[in-house]
Amino acid sequence: MIPQPLPSPASASAAPPHRRRARLVGAALAALLPASAVLAPQPAAAAPWRPFASSSPYNVPIGARPEVDPGSAAMVARAAREDQAYAGLYEFGIPIYTADASTPRVDVTCTMEGAWGDCPLSGQKMPVPAGAVPQLGSDGAMVVIDSTDHTIGEYWQAERTGSGWRASFGAVNSLKGSGWGGSSTGSGASRLGGVVRVSEIAAGDIDHALVVQSDNVCARVYRAPAIKTDGTSYRTDCLTEGARLQLDPSIDLDGVVGLTRGERTVAEALQTYGAYVIDQGGAPLSVSFQRAADATATSPGAVYTSAGFAWDYYGMPHVPWDRLRVLA
């Protein structure tokens, strides 16, 4: 999606073409999920690495008695109207690469340089692995973690050129910072922040807040930790960028019928850490995931598939999305 002409840049994170036909096919495929996808005892695994400072909004659990937004019920009813939240696993999956001292440094041209100030990606050599492939969807997102200086190069609408790379815009953030700042997303959230990573689904443990997109994001207003918005909605039930959603922690997930291992992992994180609204999208609700190295147009990859995410834009229908709440 092309950014709106707002005071600050907006990376519109699109969402699935959730057609009725696709949903019917998805329901049929659900019956064919491998037995390993069904919730069952799993061997213990080490908790995956977590970026950003311990004080980052992503890394601080929600307290025991958080204040709920007065408009929560209406906002959730609109966002959860399809009883699904679509997992962006392939087309809009976020490619995350790691660079070290041996990674080639390249020139990056920002085609929207000056539109919202100086582009942080230009004017310096940026590390980009030789085989890097940006997100396939319209956002063309890409994340490169530079292990030499603990920064993150975050690209919006990136593509390789003959002599280097170009992007519409982007950001450079610190792995030791808050995870908010710059212009790689509509809200100013780091493009790495809150993304569900393959290693986390493999381990069955997400120890940070998630990030979501919605087609009903408020125009012109936002709340901390967001620093801007790309929302276009003037409905009274719109979601404000920066708003934190939480799955009702009183829900006993052991009693949720059909919950897959992957859905369980996501639901536990939503109860403990919640999810921040960071972008305008094309579906009522969608969740950002890392694109797996073995993902294809017909499979999101072995780890996701074995956890129950059988296809791109899997809607995680067993999670009780109507039991979300918007925190004040």
TrEMBL record:
It comes from the Bacteria. PROSITE patterns: TAT (PS51318). Keywords: Signal. InterPro entries: TAT_signal. Residues 1-46 form the signal peptide. This is Uncharacterized protein. It comes from Microlunatus spumicola.
